[in-house]
Structure prediction request, 825 residues.
Amino acid sequence: MAKGKKGSTGGDGASGDNVRLAEVGQSLFVKAVAVGVIALGISLFLGSTENDGWTRWSHSYLVAFVWVMTIGAGALWWITIQNIVNSHWSTVIRRVGELIATNAPVLALLSLPVVLPLILGKPIMYRWADSSLMTGDLAHKLGYLNTKFFSIRFVFYFGYWTWLSYYFLNKSLGQDKESKEAAAKTVVTMRRLAGPAMIVFALTITFCAIDLIMTLEPQWFSTMFGVYYFASCVLAINSSLALSLMWLQSKGRLSSSVTVHHFHDLGKMVFAFTIFWAYVGFSQFMLQWYANIPEETLWWKERFANGWGTLSWVLLFGHFVIPFFGLLSRWVKRSRKALAFWCIWQLVMIYLDMYWLVMPTLGTSDVPFKLVDLACWVGVLALFIAGIAYRAKNLDLLAKNDPRLPDSLALENL
Amino acid sequence: MSDEHKKSPAKPSEAPLHGLLAEYDTPPQLVQAAKKIRDAGFTKWDTYSPFAVHGIDDAMGIKMTVLPWFVLCAGLTGLATAITLQWWTNAVDYPWIISGKPMWSIPANVPIMFELTVLLSAITTLVGMLLLNNLPLPSHPLDQVRRFARVTDDKFFLMIQASDPKFDDVETRELLEATHPVAIEAVNEDHTTDDKLPSGLVYALIIVAVASIVPFALAAKARYTKSSSTRIHIIQDMDSQPKYKAQRENPFFADNRATRPAIDGTVAVGDARDDDHFYKGKVGNDWARTFPTEIALDEATMDRGRQRFGIYCTPCHGQVGQGDGMVAKRADQLAQGTWVPPSNITQENLRQMPVGELFNSITNGVRNMPAYGPQIKTEDRWAIIMYVRALQRSRSGSLNDLPPDARASLK
Prediction:
């Protein structure tokens, strides 16, 4: 990642930029809420026609939720890592990352349809919540897999994410009004916290992924599962940031601050984590495939049979091989349209990946893609965007007083 | 050494002009100067700085490097090499089944494919970068310029070579002056330094290259010639131990045998197997038709038998003894013609066979089934037979054999 020219006199580009969403944010909020409510309403109607005690709908919703969580949790990771490494290049886009990360409370609200039935003792998807089914070797897992501990963990995950993201946002907003010296000190304060905070974050994202997805099949386990989900988080946030900035610029915001060089860097991250996803995914697969132990391979057997096998191949090529060559060229990462195409492509692939993780537990031999999946997906995404728009509309989209801003504005990338 | 070097060093002023060097204080000045020289149409010139100056490529009009294409080709070559190598060694030249996977098992090959792709890409990046930059460069006329030493510290330089077709002593100097450098200096050709690699280094490299052939030559020689001496045994492990193995010669004893036969009239501890029914499955001269009294005919023995059957018998005979175990299936697949298929243990003649004879088959083996006597304890062999009898019985079972509640679940 290239650093900006030190000591060069940037900053002119930012002064003229429009950095408030204002009425655009308000109209986005209204539209997103409307779309979200309608789409979720449709999904609930479609779910009720299944007459299966909401099983189908819950799974659809879970896929949509863990997908949108890759963006939300990914954003928190992203701003934390920028603080840890004292990144100069990303300063112009960090505020946008902070605004996405502070959507953690909205994520917590969106998680309720998944979590509430469990906490209320009426599990729809997670059969470990019925301890009478957890016999034999599974009984050993009851110490971890019980609704009480699960609730405590969940409150901690979202509580921690909310606290950490708001800490960074508030510090950063406060910095906007500070003197030069104080602003420089704020940078250091945020950086000091970011290191330890990252360790706790790594644990929360790992266990959150395990709790929400891996425990759907309580007999199966993979020690790499947290990293596998994390790979999608990083991929999702870098893609989302690139797309968000393109949208902002199309609305005349941050027009001259964010340049082709920033998009190029985001594109590199999307490319790198496309490879990382494949690396982790394959490692997870190969260890279990080679050991060939029944309680591990069963999970894969479900996913390599019939229609799920086709989806596995789609993921191998669609999530890795094709975008690998697609994103390889420098030209692609610097072309707005080409980069937008691959970012959307990868976000769709992440959705298919989540689908592939969650849905086989329904026990169907074919990929049961239905309209209810699409309705849940659109609904959850729209409400997620509404949360961001509501908070962002009256805040600056640029950390204008950050001492690293001139470097970031002058970023040049080969 | 050439004659030139025997002469006393030539004074710089006597050597022909190599180029004009301009010095700048900051990167932006260098970039501005580079743009002017680029626009003036010079081709043989370069800029020098302590670190990468962003935008200098554009300012100098340097085209994108072709290196990425080399790296892409090298990466694909690595990938193809890894696939071909593993396919040829695993599936063609030396086919070998490893942990029940197919001969050519692509998932197992992926780590090597990944490593070779990365390795060749990385080496090509490094070597390609050096070659495209004409590195390593043992000497350069600029090495003689004192002020140029600060290029690794805080100064920025630009030099136009005298060999450039557009170069003109006066005009070029004026052009450089127009870029507001801190200083301009004429750089002369340098005949005092040898611009070849040091001869010691060259000889060392040749020696290393030749020496690296030696191991391969030795391996080739060993492969195609015969020798009466034993192989070189570098790592001894525990290959040679001062002890006698069974069936070997030992001149210490009169009969020269290392294995000592039992002394007449003695029995080793645990070897007194005088119960023929229990140990051989025989009653008198006939196969026993009942279980020996040592075996308790109860649920525990049946469970033990089921478990032992699962461990020792299912690989060939299958889960319920139909002769369709994994080994049998694999042998059928290979169709090599030498395989005697395992029996279906529930077939009629085995159902009629006395338990003593079954016991004998397990203990001593039959056809290509090996002897299991040495592996399975005597009690367990009887327990297996008990379970085999249960499997046989299950084949002729009827609905009435089931307990009433289980019967209901089948209706």
User: Anything to note?
Assistant: DSSP finds 15 helices and six strands in chain B. The interface with chain A takes residues 27-28, 54-55, 57, 64, 68, 72, 99-101, 107-108, 110-111, 114 of chain B (CB under 8 Å).
